[in-house]
């Protein structure tokens, strides 16, 4: 059996990670899963519109908006869970 060159005595250099600020992290997370911020904005819009309707005394429309808010929250939750599953599958492969 032929002897090859000896293994290097120096350890492999560790990867260098830079500090990530809030804005950088928000942009990265938005690029990874754009449906979550969209769902949050939709939920906020429906909630605001429902509260304005409630304040004006339009209870029927206010109730409709609160139901729409629940649907928007469900969409946001589904987008969040879908993003987590996609990230886990990407890390696995």
The overall average pLDDT, rounded, is 89
Q: Helix count?
A: 3
Beta strand count: 0
Biggest β-sheet strands, sense, barrel? none
Spans of 5+ residues with little confidence (pLDDT < 50)?
Answer: none
Q: What is the string of SSEs from the N terminus onward?
A: HHH
Can you tell me the overall shape? elongated
Helix vs. strand class: mainly alpha
* Overall helicity: over 70%
Proportion of residues in β-strands: under 5%
Q: Give the oligomer, counting copies of the same chain as homo and different chains as hetero.
A: single chain
Distance between the termini: 36 Å
Radius of gyration over all CA atoms, rounded: 24 Å
InterPro entries: Hypoxia_induced_domain, RCF1
Keywords: Membrane, Transmembrane, Transmembrane helix
Subcellular location: Mitochondrion membrane
Domain HIG1: 7-93
């Amino acid at each position: 059996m032929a002897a090859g060159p000896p293994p290097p005595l120096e350890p492999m250099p560790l990867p260098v990670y830079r500090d990530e600020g809030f804005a950088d992290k928000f942009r990265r997370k938005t690029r990874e899963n754009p449906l979550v911020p969209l769902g949050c904005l939709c939920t906020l819009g429906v909630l605001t519109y429902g509260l304005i309707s409630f304040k004006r005394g339009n209870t029927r429309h206010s109730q409709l908006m609160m139901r729409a808010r629940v649907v928007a929250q469900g969409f946001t939750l589904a987008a969040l869970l879908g993003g987590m599953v996609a990230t886990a599958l990407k890390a696995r492969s």
